[in-house]
Design brief:
Among the domains are: 30 residues; 63 residues, GMP Synthetase, Chain A, domain 3 (2-Layer Sandwich); 99 residues, no CATH class. The protein has five helices and 19 strands. Helices cover 17% and strands 33% of the residues.
Length: 339
C-alpha cells in the first residue's frame, strides 16, 4: 500500500511538473502592447493583400488581443488566422473616404442653419473660400501667443493645393449662397499651416490636419448648446472600448466607442488614395457622416469627460477614423485652448 501511495505521489508531482513546464513554455497571454508590436511588424504585408482596406489592433469578447483586418468586401481567402500567436479577425468596412461635403449649396441665407454669430462655437461648418465644400471646426488651439481654428487638411488646405494665407470661412462655402458681397460676414481666419498628405497606398501619413489663424473675437472655445461644452486642455490616449463623442457639422452630437487602435488605413480622396498609420477606429459608422470631417473626438464618461482623444477625418458605413490628437498637436506645436 505504501509503495502504491509513493508511486501515486510521484505521478502527481511529475504531472504537475509537466503542466508547469507547458505553462512556462506558452508564457503569459499576449497583451495589447505585444499585439501592436506584431501588427506594426506585419502591417505592410497585410496592407498588400487583395481587398484589404486596412488593419488595426483590438480585443475580442474574452478581452484577448486581436488584429482586425479591414476588407473592402467579404473575402477570407489568403488571410491568416493568426500572426505570431495573435488571433486575426476580419471586418467588412467597404472603402474608407475623407468626410467633407463638396457639392453646390442650396441654403437660403435668411434661414441658414449653419451660420453662427461671432465668436462662433466649435463643432460647426467651416471651409476654404476657394472651394465649395464644408467640414467641421475641431476646436480652438493656441501656441501661447496666437489662437487657431483646427480642422483637416482636406477641409482647410484642400488636399495640399491651398496656399498659406487663404481665407477660411464659417460656415463653409457649401453652406453659403450669398458669399459675394458678404465676405466679411463669413470670415473666420487665414490658413496658417497644414500637414502635407502623401497620396500613396504605401505612405505612412500620420495626420490629416490644418490650422487657421484667428482670434477670440471670431472663434469661441465650446460647442453649441446641446453639445459637450468646452473640451479639456489635457488630452487622453485612445483605448479599446473607450466611450467617445463628437460634435460635428452634419450629425451634431453623437456617441460611440473606440473599436481599435494603431490602425493602418487606405483613405479615398479626390487626389487619390492615401495610407495612414497609427490611427483610431471608432464605431458605429453612424458616429459621423460627410461634413463631419474635422470634428474633435473626446472621451464621453467619467473623470476623463471631454478630454480630447482624436481628430475625425474619414470613415465608411461601419467605421470612423480619427488621428490621435497628440500627433496633431505635436505637429503644429500647439495645445487645446479649453478648460
Amino acid at each position: 500500500m505504501l509503495a502504491k501511495r509513493t508511486i501515486l505521489c510521484i505521478a502527481i508531482v511529475t504531472l504537475g511538473l509537466i503542466l508547469c513546464s507547458m505553462a512556462l513554455a506558452q508564457g503569459p497571454r499576449p497583451g495589447i502592447e505585444r499585439a501592436r508590436q506584431v501588427h506594426d511588424r506585419y502591417r505592410d504585408h497585410i496592407s498588400a493583400l487583395p481587398e484589404v482596406v486596412g488593419s488595426a489592433v483590438g480585443q475580442d469578447e474574452q478581452d484577448e488581443p486581436v488584429i482586425h483586418i479591414l476588407l473592402e468586401r467579404p473575402n477570407g481567402r489568403g488571410l491568416p488566422r493568426t500572426i505570431d500567436g495573435i488571433r486575426v479577425g476580419t471586418i467588412v468596412t467597404g472603402k474608407i473616404y475623407a468626410l467633407a461635403f463638396g457639392r453646390p449649396a442650396a441654403i437660403k441665407p435668411q434661414t441658414n442653419p449653419y451660420y453662427y454669430a461671432r465668436p462662433v462655437p466649435i463643432g460647426v461648418s467651416t471651409g476654404n473660400a476657394n472651394e465649395r465644400s464644408a467640414g467641421t471646426i475641431a476646436c480652438r488651439v493656441t501656441d501661447g501667443q496666437f489662437v487657431y481654428a483646427l480642422s483637416n487638411n482636406h477641409v482647410y488646405a484642400l488636399e495640399n493645393t491651398a496656399e498659406i494665407g487663404d481665407i477660411i470661412l464659417q460656415p463653409g462655402l457649401y453652406d453659403i449662397t450669398d458669399y459675394t458681397g458678404n465676405k466679411a460676414k463669413y470670415f473666420l481666419g487665414l490658413l496658417e499651416d497644414f500637414y502635407p498628405i502623401e497620396f500613396s497606398e504605401e505612405a505612412n501619413n500620420l495626420i490629416d490636419a490644418a490650422i487657421a489663424i484667428t482670434d477670440a473675437d471670431h472663434l469661441g472655445k465650446g460647442t453649441p448648446s446641446g453639445g459637450y461644452g468646452v473640451p479639456r486642455s489635457q488630452t487622453l490616449a485612445a483605448q479599446v472600448r473607450m466611450p467617445v463623442m463628437k460634435y460635428g457639422r452634419t450629425t451634431r452630437l453623437t456617441t460611440g466607442r473606440v473599436y481599435a487602435i494603431d490602425a493602418t488605413v487606405k483613405v479615398q480622396y479626390g487626389s487619390g488614395v492615401a495610407r495612414f498609420v497609427h490611427q483610431i477606429l471608432i464605431t458605429p459608422g453612424t458616429f459621423s457622416k460627410a461634413g463631419d470631417s474635422g470634428s474633435l473626438v473626446v472621451c464621453a464618461s467619467g473623470e476623463n469627460y471631454a478630454k480630447p482623444v482624436g481628430l475625425l477625418f474619414a470613415g465608411s458605413s461601419s467605421v470612423v477614423v480619427a488621428n490621435p490628437i497628440d500627433a496633431v498637436l505635436d505637429y503644429f506645436d500647439v495645445q487645446i485652448d479649453g478648460q
